[in-house]
Amino acid sequence: MTTYRDRAEAGQALAERLTALIGEPDVVVLGLVRGGVPVARVVADRLGVPLDVLVVRKLGMPWAREVAFGALGPGGVQVLNDMVAGRLSSDDIAEVSRREQAELERREQLYRRDRPPLDLTGRTAVIVDDGLATGATARAAVEVARRLGARRVVVAVPVGAQEAYELLAAEADQVICAQRPPEFGAVSAYYDDFHEVSDEEVTEVLTASA
Prior knowledge:
By secondary structure, this protein is of the alpha/beta class. The chain is about 40% helix and about 20% strand. The strands form two sheets. Strands 2-1-6-7-8 form a five-stranded parallel β-sheet, with helices on both faces. Helix 1 packs parallel to helix 2 (about 35-45) and helix 2 (about 35-45) runs parallel beside helix 7.
């Protein structure tokens, strides 16, 4: 098992596996907010392509938030897992969606500021996160990217669980995962520094890359 010093080092390791994209037209790197953004910054710099953020809010079951029944993305995109969502009433779905929509709008407003709304029409979207545990957020992000017009969707992570990798591989056009340890555990176990990324850190990264 290899551990990364921090998200920047993880980004360097990941970027070396994505060099085939250098020179390809219409590539954009999207950091999943918030932990994926510092990783995505390094990847975007190495590939010489624009960096943006993708704000995706997982819709969790009211009694078990870590169990996702769907997700929300920018531009009014809502993705529901019908098998799980079918166990909820329409009122429950509406209540969770309302709460997560408010947080999504807060983050979109904070991070986008003067940036135009995210439009991926005809582009290759490289979705980057700091790790893949269940894969629920990344799978939702793939769907959101497609709804926003992406021609091709690549998911790239420094480390991930094998099961999550396989689920994603069935949905994304390509999944790049630098490490897939047999006994996964938690993403944080693969980093020496896995501090919680703040809103301020995300904003600084975006300002610097602009």
